[in-house]
């Protein structure tokens, strides 16, 4: 017969198996070590692991930002008084994957906002989920390192929308930007094959697409310069007429790149844009009255659309109010005594009769 | 398909050996289908056809759209989108089959789906163009005309994509972008 070895039978004595006397004779450390701590170890280790990964990702994002903004410095310090949020601070960390910087102090330009959106490297779960889910759902954006330059001019000039958009992802750009979806897309022999114009009028491409800007773009820059757009309209589709109020700016959307050649292109584009703004501000570039009229027409159509929505909402509210009133009246009627009810009903019937008579008289 | 159904009746799915080979066959065919799509994708990327393509998509009342939507894209992007849609289909099929086979323990659909994914992949318009070099004209002219699905037939909506200049001109500047999503 098979015999179980004695050592296996003798099980390890658990905490609960000890008597009170035995326990009280042990020291505190001995008593603690009697417990099973596996779950606690696993928990603490995973928390520590998560924190370490978070700090690593966060640190890496910060490193990228610092490197990128430092590399951009020569392009800004050439003409701007201040580059960075403060004299000795280059950027502000908003969250672990979003950073903001700023440049100001140049003729004709109020400020340049630099907004850096990075991959959520601090949160591996979010990062991987977004990366996978973005393939299956259009509404989830693929995580990407992007930089948006928001150039706000100092002076007023004509309202218009004019964009140079990379052909890679131009449909997405049109979907995401209200202002781009107001424009007509056209190819041009002046542009590299990988870019298109999205503008409200042909005149804009002739006047705003300067030689300098032309030289700043080449075939391969479409892979990191997503769009350059002069606009007076918001990026989000307005829901109130007030949102349509023009606020002129130039939005340059790029991927975050650190190659020398790529940065040189971005620098050239920025410089060309600043110079175009100079020309617009000094009225060196002005639009023909027909073009201006056409642009105003587009705005009016958009205002008309929103007005119609507001009107419809008002009507709906009015109808609701009326229905509520009628209901309240009926409710009140029900509360009265039967005689009074009859009286009121009679009165209403008489009123109706009178109205009918009046109508007949008019017709006759 | 009918032949497959007849064949499926004759196979003893209870036999673990048969079951194993049915599983291998299914997964192998899925892999072949995926490979076909990935090769097509690589071909599209290497061709890098940046010709601009404009068309108007009909409004989709299911997602609350009231106006037809202009799409401005390139041939490359359009083609990649087609392949991605097909790939999504394969992954969906895999997920469905995973549920049916592993959870509900049906083996029959596993067998039925084996050939049809590969057949489907080879019959996709985009694969025909890039893998077999069929010229993209006639029925294969971009944008492809999708057969209206059941719901569209019932509601009479969604007459398909439009490519005439008038509708493109009207829809292109309608300001449909930048809708807030929340």
TrEMBL record, chain A:
Membrane topology per record: Single-pass membrane protein
Residue intervals passing through the bilayer: 41-60
Biased composition (Basic and acidic residues): 314-351
Record GO biological process: endoplasmic reticulum calcium ion homeostasis
GO cellular component: endoplasmic reticulum; membrane
Location of region: Disordered: 314-364
Swiss-Prot/TrEMBL keywords: Membrane, Transmembrane, Transmembrane helix
The protein's name in its UniProt record: DUF1682-domain-containing protein
From TrEMBL, chain B:
Keywords recorded for this protein, A-Z: Membrane, Transmembrane, Transmembrane helix
InterPro entries documented for this protein: SND3_fun (IPR012098)
Residue intervals passing through the bilayer: 20-39
Record flagged with keyword Transmembrane helix: yes
GO biological process, one term: protein targeting to ER
Stored Pfam families: Pho88
KW Transport (keyword) present: no
Recorded GO CC terms: endoplasmic reticulum; mitochondrion
Alphabetical list of PANTHER family matching this protein: SRP-INDEPENDENT TARGETING PROTEIN 3
Protein name: Phosphate transporter (Pho88)
Phylogenetic classification of the source organism: Eukaryota, Fungi, Dikarya, Ascomycota, Saccharomycotina
């Amino acid at each position: 017969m098979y015999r179980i070895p004695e050592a296996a039978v003798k099980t390890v004595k658990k905490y609960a198996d000890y008597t009170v006397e035995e326990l009280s004779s042990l020291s505190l450390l001995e008593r603690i070590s009697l417990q099973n701590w596996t779950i606690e170890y696993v928990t603490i280790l995973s928390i520590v692991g998560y924190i370490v990964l978070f700090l690593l990702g966060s640190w890496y994002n910060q490193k990228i930002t610092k490197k990128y903004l430092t590399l951009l410095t020569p392009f800004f310090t050439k003409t701007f008084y201040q580059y960075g949020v403060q004299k000795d601070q280059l950027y502000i960390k908003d969250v672990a994957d979003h950073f903001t910087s700023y440049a100001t102090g140049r003729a004709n330009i109020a400020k340049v906002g630099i907004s850096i959106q990075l991959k959520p490297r601090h949160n591996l779960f979010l990062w991987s989920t977004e990366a996978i889910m973005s393939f299956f759902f259009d509404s989830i954006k693929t995580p990407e390192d992007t930089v948006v330059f928001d150039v706000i001019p100092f002076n007023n000039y004509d309202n218009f929308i004019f964009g140079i958009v990379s052909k890679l992802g131009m449909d997405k750009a049109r979907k995401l930007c209200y202002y781009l979806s107001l424009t007509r897309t056209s190819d041009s022999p002046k542009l590299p094959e990988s870019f298109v114009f999205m503008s409200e009028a042909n005149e804009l491409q002739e006047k705003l697409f300067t030689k300098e800007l032309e030289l700043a773009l080449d075939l391969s820059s479409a892979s990191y310069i997503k769009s350059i757009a002069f606009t007076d309209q918001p990026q989000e589709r307005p829901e109130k007429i007030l949102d349509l109020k023009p606020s002129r700016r130039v939005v340059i959307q790029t991927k975050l790149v650190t190659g020398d050649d790529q940065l040189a292109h971005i620098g050239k584009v920025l410089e060309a844009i600043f110079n175009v703004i100079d020309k617009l501000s000094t009225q060196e570039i002005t639009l023909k009255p027909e073009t201006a009229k056409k642009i105003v027409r587009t705005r009016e159509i958009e205002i008309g659309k929103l007005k119609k929505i507001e009107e419809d909402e008002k009507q709906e509210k009015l109808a609701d109010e009326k229905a509520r009133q009628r209901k309240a009246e009926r409710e009140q009627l029900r509360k009265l005594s039967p005689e009074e009810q009859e009286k009121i009903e009679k009165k209403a019937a008489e009123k109706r009769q009178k109205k009918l008579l009046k109508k007949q008289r008019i017709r006759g | 398909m009918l032949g497959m159904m007849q064949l499926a009746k004759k196979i003893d799915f209870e036999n673990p050996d048969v079951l194993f080979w049915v599983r291998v066959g299914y997964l192998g065919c899925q892999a072949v289908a995926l490979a076909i799509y990935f090769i097509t994708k690589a071909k599209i990327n290497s061709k890098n056809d940046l010709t601009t393509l404009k068309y108007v998509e009909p409004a989709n009342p299911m997602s609350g759209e009231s106006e037809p939507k202009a799409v401005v894209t390139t041939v490359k992007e359009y083609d990649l989108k087609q392949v991605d849609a097909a790939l999504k289909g394969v992954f969906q099929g895999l997920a469905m089959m995973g549920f049916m086979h592993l959870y509900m323990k049906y083996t029959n659909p596993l067998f039925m789906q084996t050939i049809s994914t590969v057949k489907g992949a080879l019959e996709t318009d985009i694969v025909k163009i890039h893998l077999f070099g069929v010229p993209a004209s006639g029925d294969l002219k971009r944008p492809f005309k999708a057969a209206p699905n059941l719901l569209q037939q019932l509601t009479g909506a969604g007459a398909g994509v439009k490519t005439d200049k008038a509708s493109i001109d009207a829809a292109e500047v309608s300001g449909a972008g930048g809708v807030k999503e929340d």
